[in-house]
Amino acid sequence: MRLEVDRERCVGAGMCVLTAPAVFDQDEQDGRVRLLEPEPAEAIEVADAVRLCPAAAITAVG
Amino acid sequence: MTKSVPHLAALPTERPPGCPFDPPAELAPLRDEHPLVRMTFPDGHEGWLAMGHTLVRSVIADPRFSARQELNHSPLPGDAAMVVPPPAPPGMFIKMDDAEHARYRKLLTGKFTVRRMRLLTERVEQVTADHLDAMERQGSSVDLVNAFARPIPALVICELLGVPYEDHEFFQRNVAPLNEPNSSLDEQMAAINVLGEYLYQLIVAKRAEPTDDILGELTTTELTDEELTSIAFLLLGAGLDTTANMLALGTFALLQHPDQLAGLREDPELVEDAIEELLRYLTITHTGMRTALEDVELAGQLIKAGETVALSAMAANRDPLKFPDPDRLDIHRRAAGHLAFGHGVHQCLGQQLARVQMKVAFTGLLARFPGLRLAVPAEEVPLRTSSDIYGVYALPVTWE
Question: Which fold has domain A2-61?
Answer without folding.
Answer: Alpha-Beta Plaits (3.30.70)
